[in-house]
C-alpha cells in the first residue's frame, strides 16, 4: 500500500477546523495569519520533509498563501530548504521542540537521576536524541570538574564526532539510520559525509561488541566520553542516548569505560523503564 503523503494528521485536521470555525464566527481576537503559519508547521507532524505542492494539498491553503508562509517561516528559521528543494522544520522549531521535550515525562523523570549520577560519580551526564542531523540535548547535569564544553538543554552536537551521537546511531533501527544518513548528507560536504558514515558504521560495530561507544578527544580535545542507548519501554524503541564525560587528563579511556559503563547502562535501563 502506498502511503498517502497528503492525508492530514490529527493535529493538522484539528487546527484546520479551528481556522474554519474562527472565520465562520468572525472571531476578531483570532489572528488568522498566525493560525495559518502554525497550521503549515503542523503538516510536518508525521513528515520529515514536504514539497510546496504537498503543503498546499495538506493545509488546503491557496498556493500564494503557502508561498508567503514558507518565505516567512524560512526567514525566521522555522523551516529550511533541503537540497532536493523540499522543506523541513528548521533550527528555530527544533529549539522549541527541544525545550518541550525537556518537559516530557521520560525526560522529567530522568533529571533527578542524572543529577544524582553526576554527583555520585563526578561525571557530566546528558540525555539526547537526534534531530535534523544533530544530537539535541534534552537533559544535562554537569560534573564538578571543569570541562571545556558547557552544554545545556537545547545544545546540539555532531553525531559522528561524539559518543552520544554514535550510540544513538548504533541502537537505531535501519530505517532511522537511513534518515540520519540523509540528514547528514544534507548538512555535510561529500568528503565529510563519507567520513561521518564510515565512523558511524564502525561505532555501530563497536557497540555491538562492547555495549557502548567512546569518544576520546574527537569532539573536544580534553573530553573523554562514553555513551549507551536508552530503550523507551513506552514507545518500544530506542529514542534517546545517554553519555558520561570527564576530563581526559584524569582518566585512561579503557579504565574509565570499565568503571563507568556498567553504571551508565544500569542508569539507561532505569530511565527507559521509568522506574
Alpha-beta content class = alpha+beta
Count of beta strands: 8
Question: What's the rounded overall pLDDT mean?
Answer: 88
Order of strands, main sheet, comes to: 5-4-3-8-7-6
Order of helices and strands: HHHHEEHHEEEHHHEEEH
Q: CATH homologous superfamily of the largest domain, by name?
A: GAF domain
The shape, in one word, is elongated
Tally of individual domains: 2
State the low-pLDDT regions, or none. none
**CATH topology assignment of the largest domain:** Beta-Lactamase
Q: How many helical stretches?
A: 10
Q: DSSP strand (E) fraction?
A: 15-25%
CATH architecture of the largest domain: 2-Layer Sandwich
In CATH, what is the class of the largest domain? Alpha Beta
What do these coordinates show?
The structure is a single chain. With 275 residues, the chain is an alpha+beta fold. It folds into two domains: 10-89, Winged helix-like DNA-binding domain superfamily/Winged helix DNA-binding domain (Arc Repressor Mutant, subunit A), CATH 1.10.10; 95-273, GAF domain (Beta-Lactamase), CATH 3.30.450. Helix content is 51%, strand content 18%. Helix 6 runs antiparallel to helix 10 (253-273). The chain is elongated, with a radius of gyration of 21 Å.
Amino acid at each position: 500500500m502506498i502511503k498517502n503523503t497528503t492525508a492530514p494528521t490529527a493535529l493538522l485536521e484539528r487546527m484546520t477546523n479551528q481556522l474554519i470555525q474562527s472565520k465562520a464566527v468572525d472571531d476578531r481576537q483570532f489572528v488568522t495569519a498566525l493560525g495559518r503559519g502554525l497550521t503549515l508547521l503542523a503538516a510536518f507532524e508525521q513528515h520529515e520533509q514536504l514539497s510546496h505542492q504537498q503543503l498546499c494539498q495538506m493545509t488546503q491553503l491557496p498556493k500564494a498563501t503557502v508561498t508567503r508562509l514558507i518565505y516567512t517561516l524560512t526567514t525566521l528559521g522555522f523551516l529550511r530548504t533541503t537540497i532536493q528543494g523540499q522543506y523541513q522544520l528548521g533550527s528555530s522549531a527544533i529549539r522549541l521542540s527541544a525545550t518541550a521535550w525537556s518537559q516530557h515525562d521520560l525526560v522529567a523523570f530522568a533529571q533527578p537521576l542524572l543529577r544524582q549520577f553526576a554527583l555520585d560519580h563526578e561525571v557530566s551526564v546528558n540525555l539526547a536524541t537526534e534531530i535534523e542531523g544533530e544530537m539535541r540535548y534534552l537533559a544535562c547535569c554537569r560534573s564538578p570538574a571543569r570541562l571545556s564544553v558547557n552544554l545545556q538543554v537545547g545544545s546540539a552536537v555532531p553525531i559522528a564526532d561524539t559518543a552520544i551521537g554514535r550510540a544513538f546511531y548504533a541502537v537505531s533501527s535501519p530505517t532511522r539510520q537511513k534518515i540520519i544518513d540523509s540528514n547528514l548528507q544534507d548538512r555535510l560536504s561529500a568528503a565529510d559525509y563519507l567520513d561521518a558514515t564510515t565512523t558511524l558504521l564502525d561505532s555501530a560495530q563497536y557497540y555491538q561488541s562492547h555495549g557502548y561507544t567512546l569518544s576520546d578527544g574527537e569532539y573536544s580535545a580534553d573530553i573523554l566520553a562514553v555513551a549507551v542507548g536508552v530503550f523507551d519501554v513506552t514507545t518500544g524503541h530506542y529514542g534517546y542516548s545517554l553519555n558520561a564525560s570527564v576530563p581526559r587528563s584524569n582518566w585512561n579511556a579503557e579504565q574509565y569505560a570499565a568503571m563507568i559503563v556498567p553504571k551508565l547502562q544500569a542508569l539507561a535501563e532505569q530511565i527507559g523503564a521509568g522506574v
